C-alpha cells in the first residue's frame, strides 16, 4: 500500500510523538528534544529509517536505547518496518538541544 504525502506527514508526526517518550536515562529530557535524532525518513510504503546518535559513544544505554526507539516506532500505526542507524558523525554536543531542553536543564 502506498501512502499519500499527507498520510506520511501524519505518520511522521506520530513517530515524533513516540520519540518524545524515549528518555536518555542520564538526562531528564527526551531524545528528540536533546537533538539525538538526526533524521527520520519515511518511504511511501511506510518503511521508516531513523538516523540517531547517543550523547557519547560509550553511553551506558548504547545497547538498549536504540532498541527501545526501534520497538516504539515499530508500534506506530501503519509503520511497516524500522531501520535504525546509529552514527557518531557528527558527534553530539549540547548546542544540538532544543531551547526547551536547554531550559529544562537550566542552561538558558
UniProtKB/TrEMBL annotation:
<dbReference type="InterPro" id="IPR034904">
    <property type="entry name" value="FSCA_dom_sf"/>
</dbReference>
<dbReference type="Pfam" id="PF01883">
    <property type="entry name" value="FeS_assembly_P"/>
</dbReference>
<dbReference type="InterPro" id="IPR014291">
    <property type="entry name" value="SUF_FeS_clus_asmbl-assoc"/>
</dbReference>
<dbReference type="InterPro" id="IPR052339">
    <property type="entry name" value="Fe-S_Maturation_MIP18"/>
</dbReference>
<dbReference type="InterPro" id="IPR002744">
    <property type="entry name" value="MIP18-like"/>
</dbReference>
<protein>
    <submittedName>
        <fullName>FeS assembly SUF system protein</fullName>
    </submittedName>
</protein>
<feature type="domain" description="MIP18 family-like">
    <location>
        <begin position="13"/>
        <end position="83"/>
    </location>
</feature>
